[in-house]
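Subject: complex prediction, re-run

Hi both,

The earlier run crashed halfway through, so I resubmitted it with identical inputs.
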Amino acid sequence: MTDQTKIETTELKLTAKDFSSGLDVRWCPGCGDYSVLAQTQRVFANLGYKKHEPLIVSGIGCSSRFPYYMSSYGFHGIHGRAAAIATGLKLVKPDHPVWVATGDGDLMSIGGNHFIHACRKNVDLKIMLFNNRIYGLTKGQYSPTSETGKITKTSPYGVVDYPFNPTALALGANATFVARTIDRDAKHLQYILEEAAKHKGTAFMEILQNCVIFNDGAFDDVSKKDVKDDNILMLEHGKPMIFGKDADKGIMLNGFIPIVVNLSVNPQLENMLLIHDEFEESGILASILTQMSEKTGLPTPFGIFRRVNQPTYVDGVTRQINEVTEKKGKGTLQKLLNEGNIWEVK
Amino acid sequence: MTDQTKIETTELKLTAKDFSSGLDVRWCPGCGDYSVLAQTQRVFANLGYKKHEPLIVSGIGCSSRFPYYMSSYGFHGIHGRAAAIATGLKLVKPDHPVWVATGDGDLMSIGGNHFIHACRKNVDLKIMLFNNRIYGLTKGQYSPTSETGKITKTSPYGVVDYPFNPTALALGANATFVARTIDRDAKHLQYILEEAAKHKGTAFMEILQNCVIFNDGAFDDVSKKDVKDDNILMLEHGKPMIFGKDADKGIMLNGFIPIVVNLSVNPQLENMLLIHDEFEESGILASILTQMSEKTGLPTPFGIFRRVNQPTYVDGVTRQINEVTEKKGKGTLQKLLNEGNIWEVK
Amino acid sequence: MSEEIKQKKVENLTDVTVMFAGDSGDGMQLTGTQFSNTTALFGNDLNTLPDYPAEIRAPAGTIYGVSGFQLHFGSGNVNTPGDSPDVLVAMNPAALKKNLPNLKPNAMIIANSDAFDSKGLKLAKYESNPLKDGSLAGFKIFEVQITRLTQNALSDTGLSVKDIQRSKNFFALGLMYWLFDRPIEPTVEWVKTKFKKEPILIDANIKALKAGYYYGDTTEMFATKFKVESSKLTSGRYKNISGNEATAVGFVAASLLSDLPLFLGSYPITPASEILQYLSKYKNYGVITFQAEDEIAGIASAIGASFGGHLSITTTSGPGLALKTEAAGLAVMTELPLVIVNVQRGGPSTGLPTKTEQADLLQAMYGRNGEAPIPIVAASTPSDCFYMAIEASRIALKHMTPVILLTDGYIANGTEPWRIPEVSELKKIEVKYAENPETFQPYNRDENLVRPWAPAGTPGFEHRIGGLEKSNINGNVNYEPENHHEMIKIRAEKVNRIKNFIPDLEVLADEDADTIVIGWGGTYGAILDAVDRVREKGHKVAQAHFRFIYPFPKNTGEVLKKYKKVILPEINDGQLAKLLKAEFLIDIIQHNVIRGLPFRSSDLEKVIIENLGGNND
Amino acid sequence: MSEEIKQKKVENLTDVTVMFAGDSGDGMQLTGTQFSNTTALFGNDLNTLPDYPAEIRAPAGTIYGVSGFQLHFGSGNVNTPGDSPDVLVAMNPAALKKNLPNLKPNAMIIANSDAFDSKGLKLAKYESNPLKDGSLAGFKIFEVQITRLTQNALSDTGLSVKDIQRSKNFFALGLMYWLFDRPIEPTVEWVKTKFKKEPILIDANIKALKAGYYYGDTTEMFATKFKVESSKLTSGRYKNISGNEATAVGFVAASLLSDLPLFLGSYPITPASEILQYLSKYKNYGVITFQAEDEIAGIASAIGASFGGHLSITTTSGPGLALKTEAAGLAVMTELPLVIVNVQRGGPSTGLPTKTEQADLLQAMYGRNGEAPIPIVAASTPSDCFYMAIEASRIALKHMTPVILLTDGYIANGTEPWRIPEVSELKKIEVKYAENPETFQPYNRDENLVRPWAPAGTPGFEHRIGGLEKSNINGNVNYEPENHHEMIKIRAEKVNRIKNFIPDLEVLADEDADTIVIGWGGTYGAILDAVDRVREKGHKVAQAHFRFIYPFPKNTGEVLKKYKKVILPEINDGQLAKLLKAEFLIDIIQHNVIRGLPFRSSDLEKVIIENLGGNND
Ligand SMILES: Cc1ncc(C[n+]2csc(CCOP(=O)(O)OP(=O)(O)O)c2C)c(N)n1
Ligand SMILES: Cc1ncc(C[n+]2csc(CCOP(=O)(O)OP(=O)(O)O)c2C)c(N)n1
Ligand code: SF4
Ligand code: SF4
Ligand SMILES: [Mg+2]
Ligand SMILES: [Mg+2]
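This time it finished cleanly. Structure:
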């Protein structure tokens, strides 16, 4: 970390608790946001961050209150603009991790444009999408990730829209790190947060998050103990895609279409299963994964869909500045006033 | 077409010329926009449209002047908002084809959000993206489709951004019709315009368009007579992917990666070539196609990447209104004033 | 509940202000709404002020998690939600703490004593139990074990303890019904419909309601019950309505009155979302509601729909209006009808999203690039929203212009009994279309400088419009200097001539008054009450309220110049004052208190009396 | 070009206005710029007005495709681009037709007669050839076969006919250099650098330039050449600079003066794009330019960068400012330093994108939700943009506030010779940071009500800010009524106190004058000239020009009240007039001509004299 005003900071590693701002947390009791907050605090401690290092930016929404509860620098922005604010901040603080806390309305409805541009440019933001498939803070209107047909305050006869598939959109915008996890699975959530932190480039994390008030149970299929193992495909790099309570189901491709095969019936198919490859450049494997969900009769993939290395936008900007400065010499006021077509009047 | 104020219209089929507004066209001599205008006029005539039928909406940019030159209803909007304006118009004029003329800045920079939402919802707009990879009207700044490294007025040391891949973004947003064509190939352009017109749902057309003033020659590789056949893959549904001046090169998949094979050397590979399937539901084949371009040592696909049927947003809205009206009876002022918890004071 | 009032003493009151307060999860808004509706049905005039935090369910027991619902009802006219409550229902210590400073001296406090345990007291930052420590001397305290009593009453319903606790607001409601002698039937009916799908909850809630009612009747605690005679309202059919509902219904009416289908393009935002929510239900009226991806798409889609011939509107609140300004300019340039509804909330920026304010007037006037005049109207009470929605639509359609309708959080959420008009009382909205395709020119104008409307898709009137400067008459793009000057003047004059079609400013004046109190928007009730009281004290004063703000009613200058003193209270830093000063060069005595709450009429009374040279003692 | 002036007659002039006009593709902007730069180097004071259509290359030969560059230079002070040209260079009939109405009587017209063929005449909608039909009586016409002469001169360059024709503007430029006795060397040098990579074009353009020059010298046609002595400019180093360049350089200077790196978040828009373009070159000054996806991201990123401790700015024009208003409110609430530059253009909506106007003042003042005061400053000439960029930055950093800097299309594109200040003439910008982490509170304030700045990432000062209402002092989210009222008043007073740090309004007054002419922004030169001429005619008058608009300079009321008449010309419908009237309740004589062009000082002269009761004959 380079900082003009470096002051002595303790060298002790901080704990999760150190990352709490101490302000009362104002989410509803039982809200999935609590878990994301707790895991983030833990992961920041694990990563050895100092308090002043991570910079956290959000938009507006229940989830966007996140920065208030962290002890680091926080900026609670305006609705939809978190990624844009964070981009400016990251450009001037290239050595600091810049995290974005945002909701499905904030990021994918009003903020959709900033989102896809932050992905495209590989700005190097860590984007946590709290996807509860509803507008929480405004009390229960449908969001761009709400399912077709859902009854909400603004869709008394059911939603007519088709929802966005957040991971698919991120890939379409060429995001270099795309992952999915869930509020209820603390360990997995921590894992994803950590890997995102380590990724150099924009990291997009879809975090399925239960809104107990306006969309309770939206993720029961993938979070309830008794059913979740049959509905989740836990992605592991280099491993064949196997799932199920008894790890007896696998994923194969039929053309471009993933299908489920029963390994206890057909054990021989085991070595024809799809092998997960996070680093697959083209993003096609990741695209195939985005198509999968309970609704298509397939398990919902959790984990890292894609992670590829590509120079970041911030690196590019910094490099260009350095190169030009090297070539032309650092500008001074004297130089500035001497540039151009100048003549003298006596 | 249902119209309250139906008046007598001639039953003669209109010609391309009938679709010209007669206003002087103010693009630069040699601009690719002229061809798109001419082909659109021809296609509208071919489709048997009446003048009042197609409704054309645009944003701001050179390309967005398009509606002024068409004799139908035209709306020259504000920068980036064409898709949003068109969505409102289409919702109230469901029987009219609504076309959007837009540029790479208009649609993919400031208008990115409206674009992805129009795709997601399958609103049933016909979106013509005039992609010249530059801001024309504001005189030559880079756009979100400009290549990395390009020198423009705002990138004197080269663009640092990675460009959007318009077809990939449209697919990420679940567009039901995605195609690419080019200003210079009048026949192909007409074909794409016609197919888009026939598609029920949002149709996205990326039209490569030469800006003679600020980005001349950007598409020479795929438009110059001598080289283009080796650089273009013309997609035809149901046909194997073969290209080259001598039709001697084919596309095969290696894993998820398309590769070029030489058929004159290995004629036996011909029946292992990828077969194009516009209707491939998942969009994975289309995604593979979006990854191809001269830059990756592959030909640039032209044609229809994807076309699938899905009820449109406008249909859904209309259907819901009809269903509720059927159930509850058409509202009247009397009914309106009688609704709710009413009591009487004598 | 037609039972006779038994042994208890009955006290007659002319008006009462009640505050229901508890946790955000305690259902206080529901309780208040039920009490209001029943009270309205009972025949009282009333006025309400829901007041809730921006968070959905802040942690239980904290002060910032307190949700309140204030209700003022009486046997006369009731114009405000009441300055200070006569009765506070406090479901927990935080609710007490938060509302105490605002209570009337000697007010009645009904406290759920079960919640005043050490945990509850600590969360509310009470050192000792205020119910016990004598700090509430000066109030009439009634400790009711609402938690336990509800538990007892519902123990045999089969519900869990936690679920039972959700019914305790019905207990409190029942008790209040008893105390103020209201029938419980309307709420019983409502519960039956609302929980149709969960019969167990019907049972529980009705039981709790009745338990509360009978508790009042049975216990010794309450020696007196109160009677508030019903108001002598003008005869007619009534409905208790909030400003947001009235706005929605008003636009549906405008659609029927103009014979044009309604299109709403909107993006949810507090406190405007409800208008979108209400309108999304009117599908059998042909209403299309488009929940857009953002505010810009909301207005842009409405402009598109207007081009297509619908009555088009967009609804939002402050920050959303800021986002719509560029597109509003497009509507000015294309001269299309459009109503922009702005339900004002506390600003700047995200500000106080759930609180009221009047600070978007200047934004509505000037928040666009270039000279882009847009007429502005403002509703003054919840039910006035109905009429102003119609008038805004009328101006938009008649004058081919965007119109801004301002309401505010207070009247949007607040309710009052509304005398429903007869169909015959509502004036048709005439819509004039372009008639002759031969002579049609999109920017040809009639005597009011209004251009003809030829909805997109109409055969024979094909034309093109947009945001670049237009040639007068033919509407083609035109960059010529003289044309631009002329068009700017025409657009301004077109709006100015709307003056000729709106009512004059109405003045309610005592003869010889040399002071006038003016206002606009949702402060109407508070000003009215204050002026009444000032008069009762023998002072002479005049009053006028702006519903049509831009252009100003024709007689505005004349009215204002007639008075030595002009007093203008606004819940902003003096926005209408600025407009009037610039226009008429008169001095104005401003009263600007910006607390996110409606004015207290007693405060206004003081201000007026002071300025009249009177004595407030 | 040190040759002696030969047999030709030489006429001395004190000032001349020249208009270069031709097709958008004819290179008129380049020609005008070259002539300006050479003229500046030559030592004349000057002022320019580029005037081009919104289209890039409208069809050749049409009126709306005409691009013009007007240039006024002289031996005295030159403050405006000239009311009407003395000399018109018309590359085609359309250029003649468009500019004829504005020429001075007896003006000189140098016409490319080759372009006056039947096709050219038809495109310009001329029935007959104006050069031949006597309709130009009253002008001095010089027909020059520029097309053919350029062709002849370049026939041996190996260029195609089409390419050769692109050099004809250099022929015209050469001829004008001869006519006004300017050296060709600066342009020769420029051509050499510009076309470094295409030597064939260096050769061609220099040949064409010289051919034009010698043509003037050789032909019998021009009997007279003109001499305009150089101006007596204050001694110093000079540079010909446009407002946009001066703005860019000003911010780099502000960055160096404040020792803070500069961040610009912007989205291209005419006529502001150039600032982004200029600044993108200053990489070795550490300037980060972020070309955002839209205007909202432009300002949002700048706010983020400001939170991170940079001197942050965003640049735009009218419609872009409309889009930034919501985020501007966030900057008000978070009290972060930020400069928003708005280069005003013709509105409303897309309006007249390439023309000038002053109609965004009220948007700048009020175009935000809630009470969101933002200081406003405005530059009055191209070079003043340099100073106002610095002053805007100074206010932003010193007072922790967003600031809006208004310029306009005319001064942004127009140029004038700028006396470059010495480093020592520029005052450092002091930046105060939060100092003690122990006592740090983000909304604690100093005596000017300014909160401390603790850039994100600084160890020990971790804190959180945002758009919800803040608690005074500690900055936590706060919904309390009294706090909100207090914070609104504090934010207003903080901006108000900036008064104490800006210069008083400077008045240039004749003794006994009872009329003052005031103005703001880019009308400065025209008003100055008009006032000067009015004085020359013996009238008494005072003048003052606002560079600091909000808050008004301390002495504003005092100054205005001293005069019987206050005349205020604005290129809008009376926006500053509204602000002054509301604030000081004084009447103002407005002059509002909104033609997309700067004022003609002769028009202003008339207006002033009329109001002085004088006679304009
Ligand atoms: C410009 C603007 N438009 C709308 C709003 C209202 N608003 C606040 S949060 C929100 C959506 C919240 O949904 P989401 O982002 O999914 O967050 P959640 O509350 O579900 O966590 C909306 C519409 C606003 N504050 N500002
Ligand atoms: C709100 C707003 N921002 C910016 C502009 C300026 N502007 C006009 S067109 C344009 C980009 C044009 O590029 P593109 O959409 O690619 O169209 P092209 O001219 O290349 O056809 C921009 C930035 C504007 N008119 N309005
Ligand atoms: S409303 Fe939903 S998302 Fe918001 S805090 Fe409550 S449970 Fe969480
Ligand atoms: S600038 Fe480019 S895109 Fe615009 S009209 Fe000219 S050639 Fe076409
Ligand atoms: Mg959500
Ligand atoms: Mg473009």
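DSSP finds 20 helices and 23 strands in chain D.

- K.
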